[in-house]
Amino acid sequence: MKLFIRKREDMKHFKLDIDKDGVALITFDSPGRSMNVLSQDVITEIQEWVATITDDVSIKGAVVTSGKKAFCAGANLEELGGQFGAVFGEIAKDEQAGKRKLFDMVFRLNTVFRALETCGKPVAAAINGLALGGGFELALACHARFAANDDPKLRLGFPEVMVGLLPGAGGTQRVPRMIGLMNSAPLLLQAKKIKAGEAVGMGLVNAAVPGDELIDAAKAWVLENPKAKQPWDADRFRFPGGDPWTPKGFPMFAGAPAMVRKESYGNYPAMPNILRAVYEGSQVPMDAALRIETRYFCELLLSPKTQNMIRSLFISKQVIDKGGARPASQKPGAVNKIGVIGAGFMGAGVAYVSAMAGIEVVLIDRDQEGADKGKALSETEQAKRVKRGKTTQEKMDAILARITPTTDYSLLSDVDLIVEAVFENSELKAKITKMAEDVIPKDAVFGSNTSTIPITDLAKASSRADNFIGIHFFSPVHKMALVEIIKGKETSDYAISRALDFATRIRKTPIVVEDTRGFYANRCVMRYINEGMNMLSEGVKPALIEQGARMAGMPVGPLSLQDEVAIDLAYKILGQTKADMGNQYVAGKIDPIITAMIEKYDRKGRKNEKGFYDYNGREKSLWPELGQFAVDGILDNQPSAREVKDRILYAQAIEAARTLAEGIIHDPREADLGSIFGWGFAPYTGGAISFIDMTGTRKFVTRADELRAAYGEQFEVPELLRDMASAGETLYGRFSKKAA
């Protein structure tokens, strides 16, 4: 039992208790928040308690811990973004003065953490739960670290590179000095998160102990090390594994830039800036190194790419993930039991993520064998997690118990929501709708997982179109973050709200879109795939198409993506679209390619190991016969990589702009998130809409017109963009003052 003889209770975010041994326990516990984050107020209080432990002679040392389940999730980027925004305005007026102010703002946290590690007294971090970004840097500024080894959610790491930043509170300097230059690369460049035991093995944490022993272990270390100081503040410090100018230390800087270029194609400025900060900082004392780090951090903050990534991948995502698109008339509700009709790969995936989220699932297929096969996906995925130590057999059994595979529709009598996931056939979907509505509760929402068929058309089979909605998942469901909520002509706000309840419960990013063929994501992604096939038809070499797309920032090329989503699915969609549109259907260059791949060659994609690629396990190579689809043969003079990249990005972005112009999607934040998480639109841009704004509407329209003249109508921009180009407007400025 700890006996505290003095307390300091005048701080909002921290409590300071001094025990009889003179050890101060500093507990980080921000009120009204589920997670501690570093805000300006928090930084001010850290400065205060650092001064207290430095100046108070009765304090022998300190232990820093958290009063919440997690230690600290990092900086409050939303708050900091607002403050930086004001400084950016000052930079526009007086560049040098504004940049000095920005540097001072950013460097403040480094000053505070440096004061902590040079306070002259031992300080240990007792890390309970995750410590990420600035939270991890706070722990690194302490002289020792102890982590709870019985918390499965505990992770340490730097996620900054994922939003275009670098660790800006000493992370690029302390980690290499602790574990060596080469060993620090995965943490700094790849946002790798590590567990307690791994952190001990790497030398970042002193010991991993049970959570109820954490404080005592940290305190014991403090009492045993009264003269503790950081290694880099000691005489004759050397980097573990070799200083940067030694034969062992130099290889990181010889090979890492090429590796970074290979992975990022130069699209992500944070990666080279991290390397520069480490290289330059490793050759000077810590105080100078921290200033170098801050300089590169500020450079990133001024980058439009970083600003877009922070806005979309952090700020906007937080809002949308919490149901930010919910109609104002509705309040959050609960979805505890669902029915999934269609136990194929998509339906099985929906059942799995739902059961993982604690939802009871009735999984229906046309026969018991099909339903059982659908549940088997959950068994397989959970067995992998058990084998890797990510879950236990007991938890696996509980998840599987929530899924009832059956052919009996009467088991849907008490569900809150239906997800229909049968294949793309309007007649079959109509039949399923009627069968389900015969038994489900009156207030249950019926959601169709159609990929392209308009929800209003499907709702004609429903006896209650107000509760009929589209809930469009992406494959594979358990890995893809996005869900499209599609409003039919008669869909009610209640149905939208319930669909959002479901999406947020299963931890997906939901965007709400109006009804149209292909909705938002598929309309745009088809432009991506189509443009790849347009180039194939024109005689561009398949390898250039695929590599050019990756150079543009896409995770996979358009031909590879078509293989992943299945060529036979594209064939079925083509057939259904032709049937629905009749004489209004206009065939494109994609039609003969898709038709031949299925009807002539039975090449369905990865699912049967032959598509635009040939597959051999994890290995794949482009099918050598693709040249046959070049109508006039392979071009002698191939286009430049820049030309391919522009065609890839502009085709998608123009379609995204069309959906805004047509009122299919209303919020540029949702459009950006949908583009990144739905089909992988170059994340470094912040999304398809941010890409247009970052390019500038005038410049974008000019380039689009050049592409239209050279390659076709797919590059015709909506009149809205021409008007905005003339006025010098942005899409964020026009459509969302709040999001801007």
Characterize this entry briefly.
The protein is of the alpha/beta class and 740 residues long. The chain has 29 helices and 19 strands. It has 3 domains: 4-302, 2-enoyl-CoA Hydratase, Chain A, domain 1; 337-517, 3-Layer(aba) Sandwich (Rossmann fold), CATH 3.40.50.720; 522-735, Orthogonal Bundle (N-(1-d-carboxylethyl)-l-norvaline Dehydrogenase, domain 2).
Give the helix/strand layout.
Elements (H helix, E strand, L loop, with lengths): L3 E5 L5 E6 L3 E6 L11 H16 L5 E6 L10 H17 L1 H23 L5 E5 L3 E2 L1 H7 L3 E5 L7 E2 L13 H9 L1 H9 L6 H7 L4 E3 L4 H11 L26 H14 L5 H12 L4 H16 L2 H18 L15 E5 L3 H12 L3 E5 L3 H20 L5 H9 L1 E4 L10 E4 L5 H12 L7 E4 L6 H4 L9 E6 L8 E6 L5 H13 L3 E6 L6 H18 L3 H10 L6 H8 L1 H15 L8 H11 L12 E4 L2 E4 L18 H21 L6 H12 L8 H8 L1 H15 L7 H9 L3 H5 L5
Parallel strand pairs: 3-4, 4-5, 5-7, 6-8, 7-9, 10-11, 10-13, 11-12, 13-14, 14-15, 16-17
Antiparallel strand pairs: 1-2, 2-3, 15-16, 18-19
